């Protein structure tokens, strides 16, 4: 089943001194089942907000999101690990009944040896990798990735891209990937959507032609 | 883990500190030399005597049981109420004035009404103490619930944690400092209320004894009973609150 | 008039001492004897005791066993009589209890706690005359007097041993007295009328103001005489007493009159010493502390009548 | 800003809720039909009568003054102590047992000792109340201080905020929920302690009046005095705590 | 006066379940006055830790930091804005007596119109720009930048680089710049230092040859 995003209007109401902000006014996007879509756009246009809406975390807008599966993996823009749980325990929490997977996943994101570290004692890059592992751990049917490779050095970033790529090949989740780097988008996505403006609109929406799409 | 427990535990400082307290008390009592300010020695001898006669253990046990039961009731109800009010702003708007009223009705009024309505029975005591303490817990935990991080709640939602898991893994750890504060204050407050409730209408318990000795102005025995309870609390502190506290300290930067 | 020594008396707002003091002041009996009696109101008996200890008042009304005990522990207080009325054992109108022996297995409300003098005397009385240990064979319910009155009214206890002015209210409402503390004392073989309650004060203060003390006792006895004879006086006092209905006022009036002590001589003092032994035997060290006998100074020697 | 204040203020729900409370009270009083459970009408008429005679305003004013002064003393000292203990773990290890002891000594013991030592004066009352309440505030604020975010402290250090600025801009906002909890509970608790302290040794104030009416078992007047104070607290709530709360709500997501 | 970093040994002690970690063992670096040094290295090597030590926030190590001036600007890896203060108020806090600068700075980082927004209602990229503005606001003599351009789209990132570049030209602070992007390092730094390994050592330390250095 395809994912149909149809936002008629999304407003952040005035609150305290924060002024009102009309974020979207008519924004539609349809993702085929298993399609990987890169979402690109300037800082502050509403990429994260859109992901929250797609994930069902923000229902305060007019419009509809159709075809959202129950299994979602969401890499938030900040790691959001539970600080009172070690890296391993954070993964175990989303892997009930399969806790041995936690160690394997941590090794895959290059954190073998740091399994028992509490999040506040991880470097930011390490914490984001744990969060990435968590998003992939649930083998979701809908994968939302908010800048998965930011704050990582080139080599680590490459490794993570390969990891995500492998998972996309394997379980083919419908994916929305926010990124600021065209090469990341080109490497992973079937389609690139650019949003811009205030209220934000889709200013570009084009397919990526590459081997995988032809498979 | 063992090393950590030793390092961050109450440890030797706690014991030395209590000894120091007793020394200071002894010296000031000597210096005051008044029968209205007995030193630790005479208090201890009264204490031992009361223990020997079996009076103190009896009354202390009864009071401890009452405190324990009321504590559990008040903490569970208060925490649940506090979390609900903290999360549901609409409900809070309606119930907040009631909470403030209940919070500020003098203990003695609640006690009189419950005693008059339920009679001088054990249930009346529990109801009176709970009604006195629940709003305090609720007010503290409500602040805690309001300060809950939405970020974590969203993670729990996305990964579809079962409600029990959400409570245990997401909510309780964030509320821990509020629970500790409410717990420590709660124990002290409940004990003080139980004393008042006992002295107004029960025929046993520490409060009842205190009142009797107060009538005779036997300050030594009054302090002996107080000391016995404080000792119990120090043990509870060691066995319950201190380990909880250490668990929080483990993950903080 | 500015020269007149002032005596500060700690009392309860609606307590019996307040009535007496109001009579003294209303009729100027204190000024007549060259003193000023100044009431200092407190909310509880304990507060008054704290005030006496802290030196905030010169005098309070309490019982002499308390004075004796304090003396045993170095608190040099002394005592002179105020009233022989203390407690009354009272049962509901419909109750079939007519005698202490029938209290076996019953719920008995007791005001003031297990070391209260009335309760100890009742226990001693029951033991000596009926062979009954009330502490074990009845079920005492200790509580605040107003709450106990309520318990009795609701039939949740079978009898109540309470202070006479609370008992008077119950009586006015139809309850029936079974035994007074005066009866108990007599039953224990003490023939003299012993005033259990009296004015307690610091010895040091009394030796500095012997005249004032004497004047006060005279003024107080004159006030008692007024209260013993005049009905009008009680009508006047009604708001001070805090009652609305005549039945209660009548009950309080006769209760008060019955408690006026008439003799305070060596006989009474010696009798009190004997009574103390009885109290000590039943109340134990918890009651008397280090004072196993009554120190002679307990009863202020300069006052007797 | 004005719109916000109206929207998130106590608003109409609070008023309706209080009216509802009074209605419920009225109905249950009617239903009970006992002089020991007077309804709002008779309480109000007693209240008005006491006001007319000038007694209630006199005693209430005295009690309010005592509560206000003690509240300020206890909050300031307790907060300072709590922050220091929360920040300096070493000191806390030493002082923690003392805090627990002070927290659990029955109010009546403290009250007797202060009255006997300082005499029946106003200072003794203030000392007794403060000694009773300071540990509660300290225990709550200590948890708050421990939960302070090191990240923010480091920002303050790097940009060399003056101590006053650090306290005002960095520490207080993080402690706000703890301060609110301690403040609300504190006001209620202090009021209750003041009542006890008054009934044990003052000749005026609400506590004195309550106990006097208790001896007459005049429940209507007892509730009238309680109601008068609760009303004052509801006003304080509206004027002090509610605006503080709104300030916190302004920035939360 | 030059900045002399001389770390003999830095250990994160075992704490709770978190195992001990020897971070540095003998690491020396000297920065000339006004020199701009890019610090590069894999995620989790200790770049942030080193910055904390240089800033004087972490003094729990053997070794010395010499020549640290009192005026420091530090862009932390996370924004660390005070959530109870709006964007503008956050800047005003570090600008006592020059509060009007706050508005100008916000405009310079592209946040005109968002001055009165509370941080939790800013997008991550926006919050990081406010934090950058804060670090530059104090006109520091020592500037520590922990991945200043991460989480920003290409255009915004370029704008920020220009802004930093201008400030470097103008007030010539001694600067340590953590980055994962060689082009950023090349554009701004006089020297690039690469650390790697556990414990971390300097594996590369070379000057960047470019017009500015020749000025
Ligand atoms: N809770 C909120 N309340 C009010 N405004 C908000 C809230 N969350 C976001 N905004 C505003 O909505 C806009 C979009 O924010 P969003 O986080 O979606 O941006 P983004 O595209 O993810 O940016 P970035 O690339 O910087 O992460 C911003 O202007 C932000 O200020
Ligand atoms: N407070 C701490 N306690 C224990 N270990 C810590 C602490 N802070 C950091 N570490 C460890 O030190 C190492 C270096 O962390 P640091 O944050 O300095 O890395 P980094 O180079 O900045 O990485 P990144 O590029 O991911 O931000 C990591 O392995 C981390 O787990
Ligand atoms: Mg974003
Ligand atoms: Mg880092």
From TrEMBL, chains A, E:
One of its GO terms (molecular function) is ATP binding. It comes from the Bacteria. Coiled coil: none annotated. Residues 3-215 form the ABC transporter domain. SUPFAM superfamilies: P-loop containing nucleoside triphosphate hydrolases. Keywords: ATP-binding, Nucleotide-binding, Transport. Pfam families: ABC_tran. Belongs to the ABC transporter superfamily. This is NitT/TauT family transport system ATP-binding protein.
UniProtKB/TrEMBL annotation, chains B, D:
The chain crosses the membrane at residues 12-32, 64-86, 98-118, 222-244. It is a multi-pass membrane protein. One of its GO terms (biological process) is transmembrane transport. The keyword Nuclease does not apply. Residues 60-242 form the ABC transmembrane type-1 domain. Pfam families: BPD_transp_1. GO terms for cellular component: plasma membrane. InterPro entries: MetI-like (IPR000515), MetI-like_sf (IPR035906). It comes from the Bacteria. Keywords: Cell membrane, Membrane, Transmembrane, Transmembrane helix, Transport. It is found in: Cell membrane. SUPFAM superfamilies: MetI-like. Gene3D superfamilies: MetI-like. Belongs to the binding-protein-dependent transport system permease family. PANTHER family: ALIPHATIC SULFONATES TRANSPORT PERMEASE PROTEIN SSUC-RELATED (PTHR30151:SF38), ALKANE SULFONATE ABC TRANSPORTER-RELATED, MEMBRANE SUBUNIT (PTHR30151). This is NitT/TauT family transport system permease protein. The lineage of its organism: Bacteria, Pseudomonadati, Pseudomonadota, Alphaproteobacteria, Hyphomicrobiales.
């Amino acid at each position: 089943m395809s994912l149909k995003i149809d936002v008629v209007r999304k407003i952040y109401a005035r609150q305290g001194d924060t002024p009102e902000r009309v974020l979207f006014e008519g924004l539609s996007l349809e993702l085929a089942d298993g399609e990987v879509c890169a979402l690109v756009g300037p800082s502050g246009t509403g990429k994260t907000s859109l992901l929250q809406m797609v994930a069902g975390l923000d229902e305060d807008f007019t419009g509809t999101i159709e075809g959202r599966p129950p299994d979602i993996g969401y890499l938030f823009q900040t790691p959001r690990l539970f600080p009172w749980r070690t890296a391993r325990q954070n993964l175990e929490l989303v892997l009930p009944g399969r806790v041995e997977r936690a160690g394997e996943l941590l090794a895959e994101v290059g954190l073998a040896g740091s399994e028992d570290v509490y999040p506040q004692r991880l470097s930011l890059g390490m914490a984001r990798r744990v969060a990435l592992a968590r998003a992939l751990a649930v083998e979701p049917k809908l994968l939302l990735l908010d800048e998965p490779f930011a704050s990582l050095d080139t080599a680590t970033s490459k490794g993570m891209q390969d990891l995500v790529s492998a998972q996309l090949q394997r379980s083919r989740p419908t994916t929305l990937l926010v990124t600021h780097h065209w090469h990341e988008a080109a490497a992973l996505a079937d389609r690139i959507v650019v949003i811009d403006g205030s209220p934000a609109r889709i200013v570009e929406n084009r397919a990526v032609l590459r081997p995988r799409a032809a498979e | 883990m063992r090393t950590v427990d030793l390092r961050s535990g109450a440890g030797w400082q706690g014991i030395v500190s209590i000894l120091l307290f007793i020394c200071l008390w002894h010296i000031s009592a000597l210096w005051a030399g008044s029968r209205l300010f007995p030193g630790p020695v005479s208090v201890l001898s009264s204490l031992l005597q009361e223990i020997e006669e079996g009076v103190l253990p009896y009354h202390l046990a009864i009071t401890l049981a009452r405190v324990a039961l009321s504590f559990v009731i008040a903490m569970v109800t208060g925490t649940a109420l506090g979390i609900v009010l903290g999360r549901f702003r609409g409900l809070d708007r309606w119930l907040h004035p009631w909470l403030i009223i209940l919070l500020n009705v003098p203990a003695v009024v609640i006690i009189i009404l419950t005693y008059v309505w339920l009679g001088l029975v054990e249930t009346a005591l529990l109801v009176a103490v709970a009604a006195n303490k629940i709003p305090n817990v609720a007010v503290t935990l409500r602040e805690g619930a309001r300060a809950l991080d939405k970020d974590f709640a969203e993670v729990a939602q996305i990964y579809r944690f079962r409600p029990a898991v959400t409570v245990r893994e997401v909510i309780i750890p964030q509320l821990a400092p509020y629970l500790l504060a409410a717990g420590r204050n709660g124990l002290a407050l409940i004990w003080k209320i139980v004393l008042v409730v006992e002295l107004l209408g029960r025929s046993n318990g520490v409060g009842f004894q205190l009142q009797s000795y107060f009538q005779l102005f036997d300050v030594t025995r009054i302090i002996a009973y107080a000391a016995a309870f404080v000792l119990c609390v120090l043990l509870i502190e060691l066995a319950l609150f201190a380990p909880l506290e250490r668990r929080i300290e483990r993950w903080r930067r | 008039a500015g020269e007149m020594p002032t005596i500060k008396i700690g009392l309860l707002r609606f307590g019996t001492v307040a009535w007496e003091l109001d009579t003294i002041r209303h009729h100027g009996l204190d000024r007549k004897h060259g003193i000023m009696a100044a009431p200092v109101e407190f909310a509880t008996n304990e507060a008054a005791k704290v005030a006496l200890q802290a030196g905030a008042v010169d005098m309070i009304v309490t019982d002499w066993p308390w004075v004796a005990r304090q003396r045993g522990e170095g608190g040099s207080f002394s005592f002179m009589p105020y009233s022989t009325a203390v407690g009354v054992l009272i049962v509901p109108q419909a109750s079939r209890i007519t005698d202490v022996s029938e209290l076996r297995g019953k719920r008995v409300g007791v005001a003031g706690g297990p070391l209260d003098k009335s309760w100890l005397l009742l226990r001693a009385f029951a033991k000596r005359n009926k062979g009954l240990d009330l502490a074990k064979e009845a079920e005492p319910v200790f509580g605040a007097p107003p709450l106990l009155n309520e318990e009795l009214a609701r039939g949740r206890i079978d009898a109540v041993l309470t202070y006479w002015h609370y008992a008077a209210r119950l009586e006015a409402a139809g309850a029936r007295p079974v035994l007074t503390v005066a009866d108990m004392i007599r039953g224990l073989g003490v023939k003299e009328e012993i005033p259990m309650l009296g004015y307690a004060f610091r010895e040091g203060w009394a030796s500095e103001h012997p005249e004032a003390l004497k004047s006060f006792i005279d003024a107080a006895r004159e006030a008692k005489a007024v209260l013993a004879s005049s009905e009008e006086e009680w009508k006047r006092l009604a708001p001070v007493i805090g009652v609305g209905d005549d039945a209660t006022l009548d009950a309080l009036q006769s209760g008060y009159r019955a408690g006026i002590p008439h003799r305070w001589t060596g006989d009474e003092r010696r009798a009190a010493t004997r009574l103390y032994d009885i109290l000590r035997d039943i109340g134990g060290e918890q009651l008397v502390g280090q004072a196993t006998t009554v120190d002679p100074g307990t009863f202020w020697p300069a006052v007797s009548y």
